[in-house]
Write a structure and sequence with these properties.
269 residues; Helix Hairpins; Alpha-Beta Plaits; 3 domains; five-stranded antiparallel β-sheet; three-stranded antiparallel β-sheet; 7 helices; 8 strands; 52% helix
């Protein structure tokens, strides 16, 4: 009986310290994990990162730290944790392979919300589509086209290609090409174009409007007009200028070759 009591005391002494150490590791580790979690949340909130990203990162960080702490506590008790680590690693690999597309979209969405190449309300080209940004989510971005169609694009596709943001700047330049006949008075044509540009208050005075003879084409003399406008006025200036030039050319007897030389905008969005 005395031998049994001594054995129990010996085991209690031997494993008691290990149990206490494991508890200390768990309690202190959990406190540190909470501290790190709060620090990360504070940093991300200060940088005005999307709340969905903050919440996801907060949970992911805490789970990862707690998994490490639990393994450390079990190791202190003398439990072999190699098999646990191997199982966790294998499970993580399997999940990663199964969700690699979703993880790529999440990573791309995370980067978009941090670096902000565009914001809600911007008109962009991205991922093979064009439209106004309506939603920026964790895995996808939603665009609304000019003819009111909704396009949902995986974030990895947007971040993996060029992004053209037409709303990023306050001003945009409109480049227009007008063709007239070889028999027309070129000085007169240039004056007509200048009068139309000067008469539109939406066209900015600085930078100055440029009107130049661009090319002597096969069937026309082509004038190029470059005018700067506020981004919001881009399409209004586009349509109104087309009508104004046609009417003035008709009233002033300026001939427009048929078929008409291409009239276009280099920035056509």
């Amino acid at each position: 009986m005395e031998g049994l009591i001594e054995k129990v005391q010996e085991l209690a002494t031997l494993y008691g310290f290990k149990v206490i150490a494991a508890i200390v590791i768990f309690v202190v580790g959990r406190w540190i994990a909470k501290l790190i979690e709060k620090l990360i949340v504070r940093i991300m909130n200060n940088r005005k990162i999307d709340p969905a990203i903050v919440s996801f990162t907060e949970s992911l960080t805490y789970i990862a730290l707690m998994a490490f702490i639990v393994i450390a506590a079990l190791a202190q008790l003398g439990i072999q944790t190699t098999s646990f680590i191997a199982i966790i690693g294998a499970a993580g690999l399997a999940i990663g392979l199964a969700l690699q597309g979703s993880l790529a979209n999440f990573a791309a969405g995370f980067l978009m919300l941090i670096f902000k190449p565009f914001k809600i309300g911007d008109y962009i080209d991205g991922g093979g589509a064009s439209g106004t940004v309506e939603k920026i989510q964790i895995f996808t971005t939603q665009l609304n086209t000019v003819d009111n169609k909704v396009i949902i694009i995986p974030n990895s596709r947007i971040m993996g290609d060029n992004i053209v943001n037409y709303s990023a700047k306050d001003m945009r330049r409109v480049d227009m090409l007008f063709g007239v006949s070889y028999g027309d008075d070129l000085d007169k044509v240039k004056k007509i174009l200048k009068d139309i540009m000067d008469g539109d208050e939406r066209i900015l005075k600085e930078p100055e409007v440029m009107i130049v003879l661009k090319a002597l084409a096969d069937s026309s003399v082509n004038f190029e007009v470059r005018a700067w406008v506020k981004t919001a006025n881009y399409w209004g200036v586009y349509f109104d200028t087309m009508i104004a030039v046609k009417k003035r050319f008709d009233s002033e007897g300026v001939s427009i070759p048929f078929p008409q030389t291409d009239v276009h905008f280099y920035e056509h969005k």
